[in-house]
Write a structure and sequence with these properties.
Structural class: mainly alpha
Radius of gyration: 17 Å
Shape: globular
InterPro entries: 6-PGluconate_DH-like_C_sf (IPR008927), 6PGD_dom2 (IPR013328), G3P_DH_NAD-dep (IPR006168), G3P_DH_NAD-dep_C (IPR006109), G3P_DH_NAD-dep_N (IPR011128), NAD(P)-bd_dom_sf (IPR036291)
CATH superfamily: N-(1-d-carboxylethyl)-l-norvaline Dehydrogenase, domain 2
Oligomer: single chain
Organism: Tegillarca granosa (Malaysian cockle)
Distance between the termini: 41 Å
Number of domains: 1
Pfam families: NAD_Gly3P_dh_C, NAD_Gly3P_dh_N
Enzyme class: oxidoreductase
Number of helices: 11
Strand content: 5-15%
Strand order of the largest sheet: 3-4-5
CATH architecture: Orthogonal Bundle
Number of strands: 5
Keywords: NAD, Oxidoreductase
Order of helices and strands: EEHEHEHEHHHHHHHH
Bound molecules: nicotinamide-adenine-dinucleotide, SN-glycerol-3-phosphate
Largest sheet: 3 strands, mixed
Helix content: 55-70%
Length: about 240
């Protein structure tokens, strides 16, 4: 069962982490993604998760293995979309943190969550076609977006980047990771870089302004203050 949120760029394109595990270990690998902030799961607070499988029998088996009164599992026969949700939401989470750092309110954050979701759906259609849009309404999709955009480490990164501003100079992701996480790591910046490379290779950057802006802010190629302006001209509004 894979819970790692990420992807890997290879010469032949983008691979999901479960595919890397399957290829390296030569074993089947299902995935589990959802609104599952570790601290809250450890405290046995009620949460939901999504098991992504390629056949219903395996999904059901894993559901029986993992489900508990506080950990409610749904098995979905759309493994790639489930895993893609778990990776891409980290990039949106950074965007939500940038909004917080810039002192914008809940309406703006809601816009980031919605536009982020639309970019996730579009990215899946372009690069991993054949999935089911309904999967984005499982815990791995909208619910994990909400959790990450309010309580995740990636949100904290976005806010911290903005707040690290000293005379127009911002701290790097590496510096902030060392200061804030002390041994843990942010998943969003690496995923954002890989997503951006894929978009650039297909000349699609303009269609994904939120993913693009988050990536450029993480790489210090864009001032975080420009983030909101990038969203004003989003293709979803045209
Ligand atoms: N913490 C949570 O709330 C939570 C919830 C659900 C899923 N996840 C996912 O689980 C995974 C692990 O999360 P975590 O909270 O334990 O993170 P963490 O930052 O505590 O640990 C990640 C570890 O992976 C190592 N690492 C990073 N890149 C590596 C590489 N290329 N090769 C080898 N090691 C590498 C890091 O050094 C670090 O020790 C992540 O993909 C995360 O998104 C985390
Ligand atoms: O703390 P984050 O931002 O890495 O998010 C953790 C989990 O993915 C939330 O489900």
């Amino acid at each position: 069962m894979g819970i790692i949120r990420g992807m890997s760029l290879t010469d032949s394109g983008m691979k999901l982490i479960s595919e890397v595990i399957q290829d390296e270990l030569n074993i089947p690998c299902l995935v589990m993604m959802g609104a599952n902030l570790a601290q809250e799961v450890a405290e046995e607070q009620l949460c939901e998760t999504t098991i992504g499988c390629e056949n219903e029998e395996n999904g059901q088996l894993m559901k029986e293995l993992f489900a508990s009164p506080y950990f409610r599992c749904t098995a979905v026969n759309d493994k790639k979309t489930v895993e893609l949700c778990g990776a891409l939401k980290n990039v949106v989470g950074i965007g939500a943190g940038i909004v917080d750092g810039l002192n914008f309110g809940d309406n703006t954050k809601a816009a980031v969550i919605r536009l982020g979701l639309m970019e996730m759906i579009k990215f899946a259609e372009e690069f991993f076609p054949g999935g089911n849009t309904a999967t984005f309404f499982e815990s791995c999709g909208i619910a994990d977006l909400v959790a990450t955009c309010h309580g995740g480490r990636n949100r904290l990164l976005g806010e911290s980047v903005v707040k690290s501003n000293k005379d127009g100079k911002y701290k790097t992701v590496k510096e902030l990771e060392k200061e804030i996480l002390r041994g843990q790591s942010f998943q969003g910046p690496r995923i954002g870089r890989e997503v951006y490379k894929m978009l650039e290779s297909k000349d699609m950057v303009d269609r994904f302004p939120l993913f693009t802006a988050v990536h450029k802010i993480c790489e210090r190629q864009m001032d975080p203050k420009e983030f909101i302006q990038c969203l004003r001209n989003h293709p979803e509004h045209m």
